[in-house]
Amino acid sequence: MPFAPFSPFIAPLSSRPLLRLKEIRAIEAVEVPLADPPLMERAGAAIARSVIAHVPPGGLVCILCGPGNNGGDGFVAARRLLALGRRAVVIGCFDATRMEGEAAAARAAFLSAGGTVLPGPEALDERPAAIVDALFGIGLARPIGEPYASWIEWGSRQTAFKLAVDVPSGLDADTGRCTGPCFEANATLTFLADKPGLHTLDGPDRAGVVMVDALGVDASRHDLGRGRLLGLDAFAGHLRPRRKNTHKGSFGHVLVVGGAPRMSGAAFLAGHAALATGAGKVTLCALDPNILSFSPVHPELMVGNAIPERGVDVLVVGPGLGASAEARAQLARLLPSSLPLVLDADGLNRLAVDAELQESLRSRSIPAILTPHPMEAARLLGTEVAAVQRDRIAAAQELAQRYRAHVVLKGCGSVVADPDGAWAINPTGNPGMASAGMGDVLSGLLGALLAQGWPVPLAARFGPFLHGAAADRLVAEGIGPIGITASETVSAARRLLNEWSVRA
Ligand SMILES: NC(=O)C1=CN([C@@H]2O[C@H](COP(=O)(O)OP(=O)(O)OC[C@H]3O[C@@H](n4cnc5c(N)ncnc54)[C@H](OP(=O)(O)O)[C@@H]3O)[C@@H](O)[C@H]2O)[C@@H](O)CC1
Ligand SMILES: Nc1ncnc2c1ncn2[C@@H]1O[C@H](COP(=O)(O)OP(=O)(O)O)[C@@H](O)[C@H]1O
Ligand SMILES: [K+]
Predict the structure, then answer these.
(1) Confidence bin at 503 (pLDDT 50/70/90)
(2) What ipTM did this prediction achieve?
(3) Which architecture, in CATH terms, is 20-224?
(4) pTM, to two decimals
């Protein structure tokens, strides 16, 4: 029976830049000619160090090398491993006469050091203890064919330590999309700076643990673009203990508008999430005329069919809103408001087909937070889900600009984009969150943050970070990923928020 011990929960602590291909290439263009020792030598040394840290002496290290500089990194690593008394072989069967520059030199140096290049995995006569994937990195130009495709499939299947060099071969470093066959690593050692494709869509499944080695290059001297991988440090300034001398008015009044007939659960979930993560008061304005005037499970929620005349600080519109004329009327009334606004679910679906609502969203004095999942995003962009997922960052940025709003494009590696072009990827969360009601919880949680005074762009980042971390905490405790419920993430988020809100 397989045994997988629960790992202790540690939220990602440090945020860091995420660089797209054009930014990485610009750094390379400046740094490669200056670097001494050369960057490829440093990359190979870093790979060798990582292998040595993970593989006991005596184990065979099998390095899959491709025809470009990614393969060059692999050849340097192989030579260095031999020099350190380790057993290493290369698998590589490309036309070596077509190799150029440093990569060709790296191959030649490996061969001169007595290294062996095998034509395929079938030539091995023992099981490797480690597989290093140095086939293709950021130079991947098309889907991978034979023989590399079979090597990738073979390598991914091995019960060995599997290390991808820079990017798992077959993964698009910008988008996290598998372009065809794609290596499945336990860990990825990526160079110069971290890359968005390792953290969204297929990236997390393929890359495993991501380690960044700057190769001694001070990337901060270059254009780092506008993307970040979120870490807890990004929010430290707003995670403070509460002052003693406060009252419920200090923490804001959230109004949740939704809950059409047969969909009131969504509004209750959002409302409960808002209260449990710190809103001072929560009112539900439900479209269902038969809704109970209070929730027996959460009697602290104020429930009704009317929008309070005054006293509301934040709007959460959409959970279970439905597609009725009344839903449209509520949107038309609330979108122009000058209160902070979270728009989700049916609110987004209605927005997608209504030019007048779109205009009033764009004209808001405070940009709203929109929280589409990929299907909702596709509707808002007038395209297909596949087109959204082909480049999630570009889709989120396009939405943020088109609707002049902060956008959380949900899913594995949620992408947050601001109207001014800044963007971020959230590293927390797990497939246990692929269950009904999670989006409603996120909306409520965002409402609570806004009600407690978080600036809108920061709330749009911390909401998914906290929610995903809550689900990760549940997994670490053995609750999930299978069967986590949206309500359970609310309690876990409350615990984390209290743990994190300590005096520095
Ligand atoms: N530049 C630097 O100084 C540094 C770079 N570094 C390292 O270099 C990596 C980038 O190297 P790179 O640019 O050579 O690209 P790489 O990923 O090896 O692939 C290009 C080769 O593959 C080929 N090819 C592409 N797709 C293919 C396919 N589907 N099927 C078959 N062939 C395909 C393509 O051939 P072509 O398209 O011309 O036929 C070309 O030969 C980077 O990820 C990092 O590891 C580090 O050492 C730090 C310093
Ligand atoms: N595989 C996953 N990895 C990380 N987060 C996920 C995953 N699946 C779902 N989530 C998160 O869970 C939430 C689900 O929201 P949504 O799809 O709107 O759910 P629902 O419509 O059921 O309420 C989002 O915040 C999303 O990012
Ligand atoms: K690779």
Answers:
(1) low
(2) 0.95
(3) 3-Layer(aba) Sandwich (3.40)
(4) 0.96
